[in-house]
Structure formats: structure tokens, C-alpha cells
Design a protein that fits this description.
By secondary structure, the protein is α/β, with parallel strands linked by helices. The protein is built from 16 helices and 11 strands.
């Protein structure tokens, strides 16, 4: 456990130690991106309005304005409060920009323009800065200032339509997938911009349009016939739309099982005591299995219903066929693999215990770490501004 008053030194661990990030983002997308940078060692300064990030109010709270959603996207950051609508605080931000490597925001381009913190204004103060943002649509499109949140982008990018095709009803994924995916893309794009700056000495503007990112994500498998310029062959990977593609009911629960290569299917057929399926011409190779996926998955579902989950886990493990449980969210807290690896980490602070997921990426030489717990609103304002004043050249 780590006490919030006994933080590990800032110069220990993480491939991004030494980089400073100004995080003006709110909600989920931007904070996910900047938390990843902070996990990897960057000094992330979260610049908040006097009201704070909206997510501070969402979910069970560890204290005033310390809601669960905020806690899960804002570790390894320092919080300062600035009102950028006032000339004094705007000037403070610009002074911070001079020593920063990255500025991240998630506001619409027009809003950044009106505040005077567009790329041109910020790069004029610090030409080496990486100015990173996410917007609903491309900056060079007619939709550059259209408002967009996760649900809107899920609908526009085809997610709701795919759910309609699979279930008969348009629905969103039960997770803010557009925000989180684009947050991951934004963090990796910033890291790539670091490499470019190391080579050229130049900063640049980086923007992730959510619509483009989600459409590309969805169409990896679903562009299908249009990939070879034959949309008449249909769009959509039929396997994932099969009504039988789901956790299979067993005698006492559910199990997830999947085969891909020919050898895996043959071992799976043997495990379910249906070896004749391996000789069925409908299932002879990947192309034919895809064409007859409903019959194939239907036969698998019928067989799996005859035994318990534990029996199938044993059989599939012996056959070296990928399988696993159909966990509920609550099951994750006691999932054996996560318990073994210490995935959920407990941190004690004055307000109570804060539980964080483990940083998922492993580095052999420069591992990331939880150095700072999610900050209270404005907790580090004086600390950061004192550092800024100390860095001013003497008159």
C-alpha cells in the first residue's frame, strides 16, 4: 500500500520521466490519455476550472468531488485551478506552457480559439510543444465544431447499427468505448510525436477525430466486400453476427470457447464427442466455416448444453482449446488470475482506501507505476505555481 503523503520520487520509473504534460481535458477521453502518460512517468498537471472536472461528481465518492469515475481516470496527476476566462489565469497558463512538452484538451476547436489557446497561440509561446486534442470530427471538415460525445459517435460510426444487426435492436455497447479507445489512440499518438520531436526538434499539432477512429476500428473486420471494391458482396463479418456467437449455456452456467485454426477445430470436435464434424465438407476450412457459421456454432451450442461448466473447462484445457469463464463485473474482484497477479492495488489515504487497476503494460527496464493518487481539486495549485515562479529568470 502507498500513502498519498509518501509518494515515490518523481525521477523513478517510467519511459516518460522528464516530460511535462498540461492536461486541460475533462470527462473520459482526454483524462484516459493523460493518465496513461502519467502512469508512464510524465509529470501531468491537470488544469481545472473552479468547479472541477465533471466526473468528480460521478459515482461513489471517496470525499468531496472525488467520485469513482474521476478516480479511475486521474491518478498520477497534480491538480491546479485556473479560470482561463480571466486575463491573470490565462497568462499563468501561458507561462506554464513555456516549460511544458505537451498540452492536451478535449474541447471543440472553436472553444479553444475563443479562449486564445488554439495551436497557433500555444506554439507561438513554445514551438517545441506537442498540442494534442480529440474532437468529434476532423479539424479540416465542415463538422469541426459539431458537438460529440461517446453515444453520438457510437451511433454515427455504426456501433448501434451493428447491435441492431446482431440483436434486432439498435443499442450502444455497454461501455464508453469511443471515449476510451480514442483516449488510448491519443496517448500513443502523443508518444509518437515525442519520437518525431527527438528527431527534428519540432513540436506539432496532433488531433484524434473520434468519428474517424471509431469507423476505422469497426471496419477492420466489417469492411468485408468493400475492401476489394465489391460492396455488393456485403459488409460485415458474418461470424460475429451469428446468433450462436455468445457464451454457451452449460448444465450449470456458461462457458466461452473459441477455435480458429483447423487443428483447433478438430480438437474441439473431439472434445465435444462430435469427431464427424471434422469430416463435414461445410467445415473443412476457414472460408467454408465462415459461410456455415450458424450451423457450426449451433452444433457447438447443442453439445455444450449437455455437461457442466467445470467438465467443459477440463475437457477444453486437455484439448488445448481456448476457453474461459463468462464473468460478471463482480466476478472480476475475485478472478483467480487477477488475484494471483495483484491486479487490484489498494492505496490508503486520509479519506479512505482507493483501489486502482494495475498498469497493464510491462516494461523490463522502465516500468510505469502509481506515483500519485488522484488529486483533490486544486490540491497542487500552490506547489505548481511555486515551481513556476522559481523557474523564472532573475530580473
Amino acid at each position: 500500500m502507498m500513502d498519498s503523503q509518501q509518494q515515490q520520487p518523481a525521477d523513478k520509473g517510467g519511459p516518460l520521466v522528464g516530460y511535462r504534460v498540461l492536461d486541460l481535458s475533462v470527462n473520459v477521453l482526454g483524462p484516459v490519455a493523460t493518465q496513461i502518460l502519467g502512469d508512464m512517468g510524465a509529470d501531468v498537471i491537470k488544469v481545472e476550472t473552479p468547479d472541477g472536472d465533471y466526473t468528480r461528481q460521478v459515482g461513489p465518492s471517496l470525499g468531496p468531488k472525488m467520485g469513482a469515475l474521476f478516480l479511475n481516470t486521474n491518478r498520477n496527476k497534480r491538480s491546479i485551478v485556473l479560470d482561463l476566462k480571466t486575463p491573470e489565469d490565462k497568462e499563468t497558463l501561458l507561462e506554464l506552457v513555456r516549460s511544458a512538452d505537451v498540452l492536451v484538451h478535449s474541447m471543440r476547436p472553436g472553444a479553444a480559439d475563443r479562449l486564445g489557446i488554439d495551436y497557433e497561440a500555444i506554439s507561438a509561446v513554445n514551438p517545441r510543444i506537442i498540442y494534442a486534442s480529440a474532437s468529434g470530427y476532423r479539424l479540416d471538415s465542415d463538422r469541426r465544431d459539431w458537438p460529440a460525445f461517446d453515444d453520438v459517435i457510437q451511433g454515427a460510426s455504426g456501433v448501434a447499427g451493428m447491435m441492431n444487426r446482431a440483436t434486432g435492436e439498435p443499442r450502444y455497447f455497454p461501455t464508453v468505448i469511443a471515449d476510451k479507445l480514442c483516449g488510448y489512440i491519443l496517448s500513443s499518438s502523443i508518444s509518437m510525436a515525442f519520437v518525431w520531436r527527438e528527431r527534428t526538434g519540432r513540436g506539432q499539432q496532433v488531433n484524434v477525430p473520434m468519428m474517424d477512429a471509431m469507423v476505422g476500428f469497426n471496419l477492420i473486420e466489417h469492411l468485408w466486400g468493400a475492401t476489394v471494391d465489391k460492396p455488393e458482396l456485403g459488409l460485415g463479418y458474418s461470424r460475429v453476427f451469428s446468433p450462436h456467437r455468445r457464451p454457451y449455456p452449460t448444465q450449470d452456467g456458461h462457458i466461452c470457447v473459441m477455435a480458429v485454426m483447423d487443428g483447433q477445430w478438430l480438437r474441439l470436435f473431439d472434445a465435444i464427442e462430435r469427431p464427424e464434424l471434422g469430416r463435414d465438407p461445410r467445415f473443412a476450412n476457414a472460408e467454408l466455416r465462415t459461410k456455415h457459421i450458424d450451423e457450426l456454432y449451433g452444433a457447438l451450442a447443442e453439445a455444450v448444453a449437455t455437461k457442466t461448466t467445470a467438465e467443459w473447462r477440463r475437457r477444453f484445457d486437455l484439448a488445448d482449446v481456448p476457453n474461459g469463464p463468462a464473468n460478471d463485473l463482480e466476478d472480476l474482484l475475485t478472478e483467480p488470475y487477477l488475484v494471483e497477479t495483484g491486479y487490484f492495488q489498494r492505496h490508503e489515504q486520509a479519506e479512505g482506501v482507493y483501489v486502482s487497476p494495475r498498469i497493464p503494460v510491462q516494461f523490463s527496464d522502465s516500468p510505469g507505476q502509481v506515483r500519485r493518487l488522484p488529486p483533490r481539486l486544486g490540491e497542487h495549485t500552490e506547489e505548481v505555481l511555486s515551481e513556476m515562479r522559481a523557474q523564472r529568470p532573475e530580473a
